[in-house]
Amino acid sequence: MIDLAHLETLHRRLLWLSCWTIHNANHLRDKGEGEVKVGGHQASSASMAAIITSLYFHALRPEDRVAVKPHAGPVFHAAQYLMGNLPLEKLKNFRGYGGVQSYPSRTKDVDDVDFSTGSVGLGAAFPIFASMTQDYLRGHDWAGTEGRMVALIGDAELDEGNIYEALQEGWKHDLRNVWWVIDYNRQSLDGVVREGLWHRIEAIFSAFGWRVVRLKYGALQRAAFAEPGGEALRDWIDACPNALYSALTFQGGAAWRKRLMDDLGDQGAMTALLNRRSDAELAGLMENLGGHCLPSLCEAFDATDNDQPTVFLAYTIKGWGTPLAGHKDNHAGLMTPAQMEIFRGAMGVPEGAEWQPFAAVPDENGLRAFLSSVPFFAKGRRRFEAPALPRPERVKLSDRMLSTQAGFGKILDEIAKAGGPLADRIVTMAPDVTVSTNLGPWVNRRGLFARAARADTFRDERIPSAQKWAFSPKGQHVELGIAEMNLMLMLGAAGLSHSLFGERLIPVGTVYDPFVARGLDALNYACYQDARFLLVGTPSGVTLAPEGGAHQSIGTPLIGMAQDGLASFEPAFLDELSIIMDWSFDYLQRDGEGDPDERTWLRDETGGSVYLRLSTRPMEQPSHRSDPGFAEGVIDGAYWLREPGSNAEVVIAYQGTVATEAIAAAGRIGGDRRDIGVLAVTSADRLNAGWTAARRARARGHATAMSLAERLLGRLPPHCTLITVIDGHPATLSWLGAVGGHRTVPLGVEHFGQTGTISDLYRHFGIDADAIVAAASRIAPGRPIRLSA
Question: Which residue in 74, 220, 472, 500 has its CB near the most CB atoms, within 10 A?
């Protein structure tokens, strides 16, 4: 049953509170001198208010999950405030420090945000991958009550390319239980949406198997169309350009009447239809589009009663119900104090009662009773927890010559073979690079996931192949198309499974390292939501020599350092990789709080995601490491491969596959320069983060705080020179000189690569052993280095 009276009251409450929240932040709250405009989106909030009212207070159930249009965040928070889920002080401090965030955030807001939004297009697509995750859990018999994954999106978001990548991916995986509600107000930041866009929207969604529900006319309009002359009115509305409709909305009832009469002339029945309505009533009729009509919205939602993905194209007016309605500049526009007083009068809110939840409510007791029975809020906060999975025994590889990429594949294969709770919860995924990133052995053992079983045709036809490519609901690999944005969104959704659905997964995704940048917005988005996953970028660097510059990554080590929520590693050797993967399976599951570890000054107890930058270059492996601090150094970010003497003249610090060159150069330099050291950096990210964290700790009064970088480099004499080298941007390691004030020569790759051999490209970019030796000869004066090239 649709309780329209209470829903209408709630609609007005959400409209008022969202607009007042923004008004308070911009016009009433104290701001420091020189501060920038606070901002907010009153018009965008207004166009979504009825949609949010009908969903949250009528259609949704606790198991549903929603991505709210970023600019409609104030409406969402107003709803949470009315339900007692958000303190008033948070709402009053909208866009202020410690207050409600500009856009809904799982990690920064205290109310029940399902999916963070903000980078447009990503919040729209994310429910697709959340639904795929729910289907994965269902296939493995781990899912509870199925919910709908809902996206509330602005029509301008449909310009984002990732939208269509996601739609295609959903179609490939038999998507279901997804709703998109498009706020089709036909206005964007800079203008009005192109005429006829709705035709294209409907065609695209239909092509991907979605049900399309067009909500163009509200109940008042449909009733008017049934009157004599109504058909002519409908035809005029259908033919009216978007810009004109918006302009007439802003001008009001008299303008509507004049334009209709000018365009249609005196048509008898049509004229009578208009004359039966005052200017205010005529404006109300023309603005009664489907996206603002609660009966139309509720009926459409109620009628959608199966799991077919459905898009609701809800026609709205940007700024509906406010003095900003329809104006082309209303996106970032704010009501003036005078306009707010007009709006206050229309809403019936007494002065001094602006923040009262039930101000201007005619039946407060009745509304309170209604709210107490709203299904969506009935079970309280809808965040889950899942127990941590025990790690299996660490896999130790004995290969004498192997690449880190191949080692990664072998470690996963051993985990798959051994089985156990963690192995059963790993779900791998790749954007059409499964075999070429060494996931093949895992897939052969664990299979590919699909909602319905599909046989491996090549095997059935007895065609020899190393790959067992059979799909089933029990498979543990999700094969994605070649769209890196989709990989990052799928990692994010699966990496929130413990919180969204109460079932923990360990997502592992592989991608060619240069294309981490292609999916970077979605990677950042996944980390911002605190999703937990292991991302493997491989192959990497100019070490992938024959592939040329298009496939040779340069800046990804810096991405790994800069990306919050992501611990980045680049191991050179298999024992390092084994230790890091073992640690990662624990780190992904942590969610503790507390003070930083005083050994590293990192907040490791909070956990996070992990990024491994690997290589296809086979490396000769070191003998067994007996140093008890070796594993600790690998995880903390660095260890001495060759410890320097007390009078060291040169220390070579390397990260990744250039270990071979660093070791060779150290051997050549050692005969002619004193006490040479070699620092193996496994994570410039963690080494740098620990250093900056220790400096902050000292500034807060922890006088003895010292990071690993300071302990390693602080013992070097002042005259020592650091030579840093990486197959990546030299800035990754060049900061090491600042730790102890040592002169530093950073070697690395700053320009696009090309085809060639590894030795060709290392020589070209100056990261081979000869370049390291030459640097030492130039900057550490002394007799000539006899083993120079």
Answer: 74
